[in-house]
Write a structure and sequence with these properties.
The protein is α/β, with parallel strands linked by helices. It is built from eight helices and seven strands.
Length: 275
């Protein structure tokens, strides 16, 4: 794929942050329609108005992606009112709770797993069959995290949700290849901390700056277009993943502690709305 021109693009968590930037990229490439899903109705309307001012054909749906029923109903409306989706961006995500796992409220545990791990499955399950049946190039971006590649103390539930997302996403990629549906490609995106406000208070990791939102979106978009399997950024995250795979556990822990991965959440506060 060179662009998403003339394709229908759906973005979850589209009202702000990365989701809004993904939607803008689709509008700029003259997608036939850009479908925005978010639970925040007010912000969704504002974003839609901005994208329409840029010339986009935009459709909005207020959807709680943690609800299977809500996802099923919204997907049916999209198919009826807009058409079959060619590009899906599973972007919605949350960070709930901080501190040690046993200090987290079980409601926060449940919501984190539902939105970060289960919801992408709900959404993809609705739209993948038509992608498979299509004669067009189709794409899925699944926003995971570098926390899905290495353990992060005081971020256990979030890390657990992203490990699940990584394992599921890459397995679906391989299933599509195995079944011969090579026109449908899945890209799993694993960035370190991004300056969205969700990780306010997180400590820096050695040689690993806080990522800019546009940097992540542009990298993920380019990888998606070419059908690449993974985007792991920055390079230090790839290095840590490799070392974690070859070093004995005690040496791995020593390394990740030394470079700051294991201490990065010691002063985490998070965005107020995410608490």
């Amino acid at each position: 794929m060179k662009t998403v021109a003339d394709k229908i693009v759906l973005v979850t968590g589209a009202a702000m942050g990365l989701g809004k930037l993904f939607a803008l990229r689709a509008v700029q490439e003259q997608a036939a329609a850009v479908v925005l899903w978010d639970v925040n109705e007010s912000a969704l309307k504002d974003t839609a108005a901005e994208l329409e001012a840029e010339g986009g054909t935009v459709h909005t749906y207020v959807v709680d992606v943690s609800s299977q029923d809500a996802v099923t109903k919204a997907a049916a409306l999209v198919r009826t009112e807009v058409g079959e989706v060619h590009v899906l961006v599973n972007n919605a995500g949350i960070v709930r709770g901080n501190g040690y796992f046993w200090e987290n409220a079980l409601r926060d545990v449940e919501q984190t797993m539902l939105i970060n791990a289960i919801a992408p499955m709900y959404v993809a399950h609705e739209f993948l069959p038509a992608m498979v049946a299509s004669d067009q190039e189709c794409r899925v971006i699944n926003l995971a995290s570098s926390a899905g590649l290495n353990a992060v103390p005081r971020l256990a539930v979030y890390a657990g949700s992203k490990w699940a997302a990584v394992g599921w996403s890459d397995s679906v990629r391989l299933e599509l290849e195995q079944a011969g549906h090579t026109h449908v490609r899945v890209t799993t995106v694993c960035p370190t901390y991004i300056n969205t406000g969700m990780f306010d208070g997180a400590k820096g990791i050695f040689l690993t700056p806080m990522l800019e939102q546009q940097q992540v979106v542009d990298g993920a978009w380019d990888e998606m277009l070419k059908g690449g399997p993974f985007l792991i950024i920055p390079w230090t995250s790839r290095l840590n993943k490799v070392l974690s795979g070859v070093l004995p556990v005690r040496l791995r822990d020593m390394w990740l502690r030394r470079v700051g991965v294991y201490n990065s959440m010691a002063e985490f506060t998070g965005r107020a709305a995410e608490k």
